[in-house]
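Q: What residues go here?
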């Protein structure tokens, strides 16, 4: 069902029917319950903390010194935070924290090429998100702070710097 069709159906319902539909949805899906709990009592820091825990748990998946982290799960966790719309500063913070955790994990584990590619894509997404929300300076500052912090291996920090520069160059090329 499309969003427009759903809107038409909901417009035809009485307030009592609407309440029933919302309560049934609340009971049926964990994601809906989480969304309503956040919607009714927004606590963005708690949301970031939970996302950070889930990302850290994913990054700790390993076998014999090789990372088994799934970049799709990490990106899904970032997307989940962005979907709650806590504010651009919180989304940038969760992405910056993710990059910091990736740098730390990369110093302990051998990353497969998919994690390097996924990290570059996360950086590209960060720059694009910040550009769209008019806070590109905050994103650049977060990346610069990560690079200056000395967190993780030097080669990975250089990889992050190069990925950020490529993302910025792509944005500049689009703007022309």
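A:
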């Amino acid at each position: 069902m499309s969003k427009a069709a759903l809107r038409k159906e909901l417009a035809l319902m009485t307030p009592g029917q609407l309440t029933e539909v919302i309560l049934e949805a609340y009971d049926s899906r964990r994601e809906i319950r989480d969304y309503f709990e956040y919607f009714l009592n927004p606590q963005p820091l708690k949301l970031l903390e939970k996302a950070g825990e889930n990302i850290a748990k994913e990054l700790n998946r390993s076998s014999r010194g090789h990372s088994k982290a799934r970049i799709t799960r990490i990106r899904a966790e970032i997307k989940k935070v962005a979907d709650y719309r806590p504010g651009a500063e919180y989304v940038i913070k969760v992405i910056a924290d993710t990059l910091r955790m990736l740098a730390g994990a990369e110093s302990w584990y051998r990353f497969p090429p998919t994690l390097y590619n996924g990290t570059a894509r996360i950086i590209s997404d960060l720059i694009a998100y910040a550009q769209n929300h008019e806070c590109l300076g905050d994103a650049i500052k977060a990346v610069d702070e990560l690079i200056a912090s000395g967190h993780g291996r030097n080669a990975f920090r250089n990889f992050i710097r190069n990925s950020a520069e490529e993302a910025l160059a792509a944005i500049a090329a689009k703007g022309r």
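A: Context that may help when evaluating the design: The chain is about 80% helix and 0% strand. The two ends are 39 Å apart (CA to CA).
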